[in-house]
Amino acid sequence: MMLRFARWHIWLGWLVGFPILMWTVTGLVMVARPIDEIRGDDLHHKPETLDIGDYAMPDFGEPVRELQLVQQHYGPTWIVTTADGSRRRYFAPDATLLPPVIEGEARQIAAHIYAGTARLRDISYIPYDEAPIELRRPVNAWRLAYSDGTNLYLEAATGELLAVRTPGWRIYDFAWGLHIMDLQTREDTHHPILILFAALAVIGAALGCVLMFRRRKARVKA
Fold this sequence. Notes:
Helices cover 40% and strands 23% of the residues. The protein is elongated, with a radius of gyration of 26 Å.
């Protein structure tokens, strides 16, 4: 029986050796740097949330699912998410509906929230159906690319910061995709290939533990 276990252990080792090495290496890559640094938290100022009680609640004319009062570059602003999921913004003092962000305002917002030292290299509008995988959201957005490889994404409808993507984040994201064996969406942690290899790795490790225990017992008897 032990000889049979040993053969199974060898064959499983050949089969799952590479995935186990890949999981170990990608895990090391993901924990090598603090997650706050990977996310670029030090590259942007946090939005200031205001007290809703300081302003009268306006009538938005339709059911509201979520409401925030934040300080934007021009003043206090209502960020409204309606019942159908659409998002818009209103100038808080008089409840004026504000238009979507244009390029000039996107530059102003970026100058207001960006805390890094790199130079703004390029700005481009990204429609929702062309959103890159690093954004992870199918929304209309402005992408501001900086000289150090950092991208800021601003929601076109509200001017809110959606994401900060640094070169370190992209390495982390690629490692995560390898770790869960999903390089296409990098979000599916429950698919047959991953489950199969994880189960085989567990079986191989269990067989190795059994064989190690048996050999140690045989040495003691000798």
